[in-house]
Every structure is written in structure tokens, then in C-alpha cells.
Amino acid sequence: MCHGVFDVVHPGHVRHLIYAKGKADILIASMTADRHINKGEHRPHVPQDLRALNLAAFEVVDYVVIDPNDKPLDNLSVIQPDFFAKGYEYTSEGLHPNTAEEARVVEAYGGQLIFTPGDIVYSSSALINLAPPSLRLEKLQTVMSRRGVTFESLRTTMGKFKGKHVHVVGDTIVDSYTHCAMVGGQTKTPTMSVLFERRVDYLGGAAIVAKHLKAAGADVTLSTVLGNDEHGRLVRDGLREFGVKLNGIVDSTRPTVNKNAVVVGGYRLLKIDTLDNGSIGDQILGELVGAIENTDAHAVIYSDFRHGIFNRRTLPTLISAIPKNVYRVADSQVASRWGNITEFRGFDLITPNEREARFALADQDSGVRPLSSTLYDAAECKLLILKLGERGVLTCDSPNHEELDSYFVLDSFADRVIDAVGAGDALLAYATLSMLVDANEACATILGIMAAGRECELDGNVPITPEDVLAKLASIETQLDYGERRQSIA
Question: Which of 31, 78, 182, 466 keeps 20 to 30 A from 296, CA to CA?
């Protein structure tokens, strides 16, 4: 029997397996489950299902075991292999305490601890750090197979979005891009000089979540707070033209949130924010509560950017206002403001990014898998989709974190990133609608990450349509089908 991580199988692993097989008639390869691997924040690079498939493909390996424990001691006691093989590197400086513990278990039943000969040591970590292999198709295929999802079922799910009613509540933001050309700098003061070219405004924050949902086919209501100003009118006109029902509560004491990025040569030189982060007053809070209590929506999404609507004073009242049997979703941003996703305790779906998760738990050090488990428990949610930026997402959907199938990882499907702003909002919208249709966590994650990938490929905060996602799915299905046909020909 052998045991290890086997994260990216290399020549050292092959030599080790061949040597171990030569000592016995049957070789069992045991591997550490994902949740117990602590070789880096985002390790393993290859999830446990794929690592098991890699080992099973070797002719010298007879059986593969994914060990749910952090050490192979229980399996050694139960299986009682005649030989337990370790790599040569474990002999370099005496027995490691873990190896010594394994040796005691093996010797107790009369087995023998052996070491692979050789003086060349390979490292999966070094290979991954040098050039991590792309496994996004393999990871997707594994998750779909394990969770009973097909490309046809994904298309069918999106076809049922129409008619679902979602009520979005949150901070609306007008994202502006002021494009300029560089002129130069002042000679007397450290002042940059740019020439104005054009300005483009996009609806962001809770408003873009609403537009994503509407573009996907849902009936959408947005309850938000706007200023009595030009940007407020821009929001009203834009949402009316898009078909979103707006409950825009006017607060003449605050401006509509505007974030203006000055862009020069494709780079963001400066961002100018116009906003008031003070808490909304009791009257406006009462109006929001009334709208939420009387909603007939299938789902309520709280889109929290901490610009006045959500805070410690208002959150208990807003959360208790959601009617029973309504699907509850929350996304709390940590950018220029401090939001805490665990304040939305007991929600059905939460979609924080890694930074927001670490902030909520005051945890800078844990790997993303234990981080997700801790956040899942702290938030008492039913579904956690943890956004990992260019690394994709990690989905946790079971409180029993010892189960091997309690979470899964998918890589990003953005083929060419132009502007990642708003990708999380697209994921939030499509994942929510998917859960309303068939309550399949894998389906929701896949459709969400496809929408997010497409959003990254567009300049500005643009609503993602089902056609965008269908095109992504068709491209991926073609790639997988081509790979299968090549294998069958070979």
C-alpha cells in the first residue's frame, strides 16, 4: 500500500508505484482527501476525484482509496497491507513524526515499512508553481458526472428562468468610465495632465444584478435608495427601458452612488467616488421593509455594498422582513467598505469572494477548503459559492464537511479577461435562478461561472443573456466531444 497526495503525478510517483507493486501481488494507492491538504492556500491543484482517476489509470495500481482522514492510520489498521511503501525523501533526516506513527501501526500487525530507493526527489508543488496545468474541462466533466448534470439539463434549466420573480434589495451604483489621453505632467507640481475623450456610464451594484436577472428572463423588482440628482434619473430611465420594476426611494439628503474611474491608455489612473455611506433613516427603512414584506417574489436577493442600506442597525429588521418560503440570497461586498457575509445568517445562498470570507472570519492563513467549511458553518447557509477570482469557485453544499462530496471546485471559464468588474453579480443572478428552477447546486454553480466568465470578456458592466451562456456551453461541449472522439479514434 502507498499513501500520498499525488497532486500532479510526476516521474517520482511512477517510480514509487512501480517499486511498490514489485513487492506484492496487489497494490492499493491511498490518497489524502482534499480537505486535509495544507500545502498552500489553493491546493490541491487537482481535486480528489481527478487525482483518483489519475492513479486508477496506472496498470500497476489495483485499487485506489480516497482517505477521508488526515492520516492513513485507520486504513492501515483495517487493510493491514504486508508492505507500506514510502518515498525516498522520508529517509533523509530520520523518520518524520507522522512516518514514525505510521510505522508503529504497521509493525503492530506484523507488516513492514519500506522505502523507494533512489536519490532524485521530484515535487508536485514545484511543478505546479512552475507551470500549473489547465484542468478546467476535466474538473467540469467530473463535477457534471458526479452530480448528474448534462449539457442538455443545463440548457433546460435556463429555459425555465422565464416567469421566475426575483426581488433585489440593495445599493445601486452608477459606474462611470472617463476615458482620457495622457498629456503629461506639470513641471512645477507633481500633477498629471490628461485630455478628456469620452465618458460612459453603467448601472452597477444592485441595479446590475437586477439587469442580469431580467436579461436571463426573470421578472425583476428592485428596491433601492436614490438621490434626487442626475445619476438617480439615469438609473430610473435605464431600468425602465430594460423592463425592471423599480421601487426607487428618493433620499434628497444623499447623492446616488457614483464611482468614476479615470482611464488612460486602458489603465485606471484614478477613481473618484461620490457617495454618502451613512445609514438610511427610519422612514426609508420602513418603506423598504414594507416592500419586502409584501413581495410576491420567489427569491429575495440582498445586494450589500455598505453604502447606507445595510448595517448593524438595519440588518435585523431587513432580514426579518423576508416572507417565509421565499428563497433568500445575499452578497456582501468588501471593497472600500466593510461588509460581513456572516451577518446574513441562515440564508439559502451566499456568494462571497475569498477576501470577503477571510475578512468575515478574521482568517488570513487557512487554505480555501477549510476556510469554506468554517464560513459555511458560521453563516449557517445552505449553499456557499466561494468566488476565487481567476481560480474559479469553490462550492460547499453540505454541513457534513467530512463527506468527500461536500464541496467541489470549478475553474474560471473566462477565455480572455477584459474587465472582471461585475462578474460576481452575473454569477449571483444565474445561480439564484438555477436554484429556483431545479435546486441542483452543481447546475447553479456551472451556469453562474459561465455567466461570470462571459462578463469578464466584456468591457463594462453589461447584462449577460442566456445566449451568452449557451454559446459558452456549446463551445465547451464541442471541446469535450472532440477530445472524446480523438480518444476513440486512438
Answer: 466
Interatomic CA distance for residues 446 and 351, integer angstroms = 14
- Pair 174, 113 in one domain: no
Nearest to 419 by CA among 466, 386, 449, 462: 462
What are 178's strand-pairing partners? 199, 262
Confidence of residue 342 (pLDDT cuts 50, 70, 90): very high
Q: Are residues 178 and 321 in the same domain?
A: yes
For 424, the grid coordinates are 460576481
What pTM did the predictor assign?
0.81
Q: Are residues 126 and 235 in the same domain?
A: no
- State whether 218 and 287 are in the same domain: yes
Q: Which residue has the cell 477584459?
A: 418
Residues 6+ apart with CB under 8 A from 421: 175, 204, 460, 461
Q: Per the omega criterion (within 30 degrees of 0), is the bond before 133 cis?
A: no
User: Which range of residues forms the domain containing residue 81?
Assistant: 2-133
What residue type is assigned to position 288 of the chain? L
Are 183 and 280 in a shared domain? yes
In this structure, is residue 198 part of a structural domain?
A: yes
At residue 486, does pLDDT exceed 50? no
| CA 351/CA 330 separation, integer angstroms | 7
Domain total for the chain? Answer: 2
At 86, which CATH number? 3.40.50.620
Residue with cell 511512477: 14
In a domain, 84, yes or no: yes
Residues 259 and 173: beta-carbon distance below 8 Å: yes
DSSP, residue by residue, 139-172: HHHHHHHHHT--HHHHHHHHHT-TT-EEEEEE-E
Average pLDDT, the chain: 90
Q: How far apart are CA 431 and CA 387, in angstroms?
A: 12
